[in-house]
Amino acid sequence: MFFSIQKFLFQPSKTIRKETKDSKEEEKKEAKEMLSPCLGCLDAPCLGHGEHTNSKHRVAAINVTSARAARSDFAKFTTSTLFSNSHFTNHESIPPLLDSFFHFAEAFPLYHETQLADDIRDSEYSHLADHVCLDYSGVNLFSHAQMNQSIAASSSSPPPPSAWRPPFFSISYKSASLKSEVKYGEKDSGFEFAIRKRIMSFLKISGEDYGIVCTANRTAAFRLLGETYPFQSNKRLLTVYDYESEAVSAMVESAEKRGAKVMSASFSWPGMRIQTAKMKKMLSKRKTEKKKGLLVFPHMSRMTGVRYPYLWMKLARENGWHVILDACTLGPKDMDTLGITLIQPDFIICSFFKVFGENPAGFATLFIKKSSKEVLQTSILARSIGMVSIVRAGKLSNLPEEEVDTTSSFSGPIPSNSKQKQSEIYEEGETSEPGGPPVSTAEEEEEDKEQQEAYHEDKKEKEKQEEEEEEEELSSEIVEVLSKSTKHNNEEIENQVEVEFNGLDHADSLGLRVIHNRLRCIINWLVIALMKLQHPHSENGNSLVKIYGPRVKFDRGPALAFNVFDWKGEKVNPVLVQKLADRSNISLSCGFLQKIEFSEKYEHLKDSVLEERVHENTIVSDNKKKEDQNLGIAVVNASFGYLANFEDAYRLWAFVAKFLDADFVEKERWTYVALNQKMIEL
Predict the structure, then answer these.
(1) pTM of this prediction?
(2) 101 close to 615: Cβ distance less than 8 angstroms
């Protein structure tokens, strides 16, 4: 029998001391809002929410026992309620969709309060009806229906020149100084100004405190900071990623060339939590050091779903570090909990794409705190790294018309004739338009290397002054040009149709609480369902699926890292799982977990858990680093966005259950051959 666990979601524990009626009501209200980590403590998120106040933190301190008890109760009752004493040894034995949803709804009655998300999905994102999009999540600017309506209107009658037309916008690469772009970018064209204004409003970032620079993608934003941050004096670069990130690797490569000492947080097996003692030691001040360096901090692991307390950013700032907040891992409304005015990271990186599950092309935004921009250095190389202007579709300045847009997606069929390397697969938050600045060929990389070496050989004060004067001269020219065009551009946008961002509007209409509650129900159900799959007639009841990171947990993120194992206990290649899922219209991604450390209790598992991987595109400075970076775990990843529903999770579960058939992979191989398609490589 399935019992409701709603009362355990937000009800304070009875162990709390007696309070007045009003204070008890306040406790319930605060406990109801405990949605994500903030400034509470390093061990568990506090109850503060949004704009924090001293009174709220006093309430949070009183209720910390209640909060932990409520979360513990959530895990206990969720685990004991769903599929109690049940295991599934055959894919045909799992309950059908309607029965599963009935029991899911009984266990999570709070899910019914998220009906608005289903309504939005049905009316605005009809393309998701037969497609499970779990290979990326994030922030989409437009809806699928909005795009289709615009296409239909354009085909029936020519739109006016000022109208938005599919694909609504494109990007145009430009060469500029990062500091001057921050200083004068606000005076850009009316079209781009409208987009920037809406994004800053959506993220609750103040234009008085931060400047915004648009880049081609997330990797370009990280590389820009890698090329302009003063690693010669602020030597350290500390990253907090339990998985291999292409964007962060690009930044590390640039930073090491410029003298940075690169460090990384470590993560404890099996929960993949940050090793607190080591992290504190790396962040702490040393008497001999006046300047520290740069901390790159994500809100959550996009692979394992582990959430990290924001207090790490506060601790870093107190110890003299500059901080990058990687907001690409945030949910669409997670910035609402940050209290940006409290923490004030020096840099924030976020990415936006056009339509979820349809068109991932877009751009990234690099927010630079205005009081921190002076720390950035002038860099010749940085001028050619992915800074872009956002222009109306069809008005590109340096891209061919045939490359204006693309409908390709990470969420789409994997080409059968392509041996897709993992490094070539889009990672979370990575977006790009076709075309790009000329920085990727071998000859140009060699040219960049020579420029960089020449730049670092001569560090005399005279050259530095000349560069600053050159930048000031360039800035003056920009101001002069913009002053002549700003008035015209502002008048132009007033004559345009209103800029509509239905994707952002949908996330705003749902709000933080609804999105978190919805995804909390879905991801925890899926974790339990996957753990109930077990090989038949296997020794010790071998589980089909291994999950890495947190399992059932109140505040786990909506991302899941897992692997599938056959009846002999051997891992099925994650890329093979991804390809087979694609044939079932389920889009997954792959990743590589790293920086894993084992305590004495788990030391005996180390050799059997970790595997070696060759990094073809990674520059490693010494053999020890190379050996360490090659060790990790290749995994399958499923990331749930705010438009995900229960059926998405069920369809993934039903697909994975097919691996309980020992001949499933072989059958799929020959089916592929029979259809005259390329054989899947095992």
Answers:
(1) 0.78
(2) no
